[in-house]
Amino acid sequence: MMLIPGAMALFYGIGLLKEVTKERIKGSVGALAIFGAFWAAVYVEKFLLPENSNMLSLLIALAIIVPLYVFISKRLYYSEQLEVSGRGEFIGKGILTLIAWMIWLSLSEFVREYAPVKEGYTHIKEEPWDTLGFIAPIIIAWAFYKIASKALTKSKVDQGGIVNDITAPPPCRD
């Protein structure tokens, strides 16, 4: 499993030596970020979390690695005098889908593990906790995805006065 990020890093790294482009910078840093996310998940789970909290450790690892990926990629862009075109330059809807999926799995795992049914509250039926453990994480993950994707694709005017949103009407030039 760790062979795939290594092959990606090698592919983009060799391409980066030939010519520095935005895609190659994002690809090589992204492949290293995948390695970092897996290692961070292992260490977070081992030292900070209780046993069997795999999804939560991956979510925490993503929360650490994704901003680090954006920071390193931006620094490399600036060092190569490449222009950052907008908010969605580094984080697309694919990574937001992955994070929303991790939020859903982590919250489902949390409710399943810590529901009061297991602590001896027998007067509460198990079905409401099953429903809550299924519906609430989906709603929270969906809300995260919608809010984050709207924030990333929001119309933004850059320094040149050009609107970066393709759905926005062209500016009036009189």
Automatic annotation (TrEMBL):
Superkingdom of this protein's organism: Bacteria
Q: What are the alphabetically sorted keywords of the record?
A: Membrane, Transmembrane, Transmembrane helix
**TM spans, by residue?**
27-44, 56-78, 90-111, 131-148
**Can you name this protein?**
C4-dicarboxylate ABC transporter
- What organism is listed for this UniProt entry? Thalassobacterium maritimum
